[in-house]
Amino acid sequence: MTEEKAASPAPEAATKAQPPPPAAASSPTPEPAQPEPAHIQADDEEPDETDVDSSWGEDAVSSTASISSSILDYRKENGRTYHAYRDGKYLIPNDEQENERLDFQHHLWYLTLDGRLGFAPPAHPEAKFAGRVLDVGTGTGIWAIDFGDEHPDAHVIGVDLSPIQPSFTPPNVHFQIDDLEDEWTFSQPFDYIHVRAMSGSIKNWSVFLERCIENLKPGGWLEVQEPGRPIAEDDTFPPDCALAKATALFAEGLAAAGSPLLDVFTLKDLFNGAGFVSYDEKRAYWPSNPWPKDKKLKEIAMWSNTNLSAGVEGFLMAVATRFLGWSLPEVTVLSAQARADLNDRRIHAYWPVISAFAQKPE
């Protein structure tokens, strides 16, 4: 990942306005703000009409409170399981298939962030950091565990709606089951709050960032790492292709559920509005498959493809069947078609990715 102000991680710097990304006409959500174009160069060796590769994904491959039986009584729906605590709040499964995808995604972030867990100063691998850390939406807990290993003097708390974290963790890492859209009740403020891939899970980002700054020590850091919506800089990603339809359906379903996708290009305004200072951000790209010529982007693309191919059906299932009237077979068919598009090197789609970080004033 590279600094937006200094350089783009793509082969050439962006210089002109980005055309609007494709979106289905049925989506009620507003168009997101537009990034500058990446100008990612496609591999010179163009695939022929039959080059729709289905094998890219195959190449990559303690809670502080007791957990009641009701929290472990997961919702079972359409062959997947979902969290029981605050049932219906988070619309992506919590089963083994999804947990494996989350670990794929963690490695994808690790590659994207150049082998780091974050860009805020507390996350520097060589920082002698001994403060309190909160990992919001910790999932399988892999980020919290890695941070605890990397900074053994820090105290890391991971919070999630699902008790899917391992029992054996570093002694400085602990997990809690809670909903951080409620009032926060932590006994002490934090030095660093980490938020990753929570777009579509938080109803009001302005309120959420206000709670973050209220629960930081003066001079403490917040970091938000999020992918935006997929785009392309040519005509290979039309609105009527299955992948574009799937992403539009996902956005429409989340909006209907009351937790719309975050427009990642508004993060600076949201941070400033909450009172943060010293804002900075770094941007990168997740190609849909190894269509770029750049060697590093090819590696990132392989993991991006694995992550998305494994997750597309889980992303769509609950939002489409609960809020948009779709049937299980309809979701299954669209998911299969979207996976085919993800593996089609003729489609030059990519997800812009932002890591935004700032401080609470001293």
From TrEMBL:
Q: Which Pfam families match?
A: Methyltransf_23
The identity of this protein, by name, is Methyltransferase domain-containing protein
Which regions are flagged for Low complexity bias? Answer: 7-17
Family listed: Belongs to the methyltransferase superfamily. LaeA methyltransferase family.
| InterPro entries (UniProt xref) | SAM-dependent_MTases_sf
Q: Where is the composition biased (Acidic residues)?
A: 43-52
Could you tell me which residues belong to the region Disordered?
A: 1-62
Q: Where is the composition biased (Pro residues)?
A: 18-35
